[in-house]
Write a structure and sequence with these properties.
The protein folds into 2 domains: 31-127, no CATH class; 129-264, no CATH class. It contains 10 helices and 2 strands; from the N terminus they run αααααααββααα. It has helices at residues 10-30, 32-54, 59-78, 82-88, 91-99, 104-128, 131-153, 169-187, 196-221, 236-256; strands at 158-160, 164-168. The mean pLDDT is 87. This is Phosphatidate cytidylyltransferase.
Length: 264
Amino acid sequence: MTKNPKWEDLRDRVIYGAGMAVLGMLGIWLGGIWFQMLAVFVTAVMIWELTLMVRLDAPTQGMLLAAFTASVLSGLLATEQTGLILSLLFVPAIVGAVMMPRERLTFFLFALGIVVAGWGLVVFRETYGVVWLFWLIAVVIATDIFGYFAGRMIGGPKFWPAVSPKKTWSGTIAGWVASAIIGFIFLGFTNAGNDLPWISVALSFASQMGDIAESALKRRMKVKDSSTLIPGHGGLFDRFDGLLGAALVMLFVALVVDIPEVRF
């Protein structure tokens, strides 16, 4: 039987997506040192992949920068001194940018976003509890799944063909609808305000923009995937680009909106 090209990547998406979702959910649920180790590992790997995209000829430098990032992030998670945290957050991005022979500003911005997200998610989980991280992941997964199926079943005009030729408006809007539904579901058992559904949609859009931003980076660097870490399916950056975008927006929202603590 001939495979439908529309669904040729569905099996890999399901297998790897489910595996990483389970691992991530377990780390979030356990919290503490377990979630910290997971966040440090994922952050370091994404910095390594980012380095490879900019400097494919320097794998050793990428590994050294990843190890340095892991050390800095571990130190960040061990201190509560605000001044030290604000200083150290920029260090891996600055050091990495100096090491790059080109695209220094591009590297700096992406690296800073990765480190801030890695540190911020751990702090967010410790401050507000596990529920809101489950909400974040649910929004990102719903956006991806509903966007994938709607885009391939409905099709239609492309969202931003110059950067991401596969994304359609139908898939984009389906992701927003799915995320709003997630927001309404979480309203049922949390004391969040009525703004949660539209905030969920905002996170959904941020997730889509994270995906598009990484697609733009790969096109700019002329690479297909961030790495070959996941056989036949790219790297962690390819899988977590949407989560990265949504996490950064969620952390910003936490600065300007009163978020109730919810714990099981």
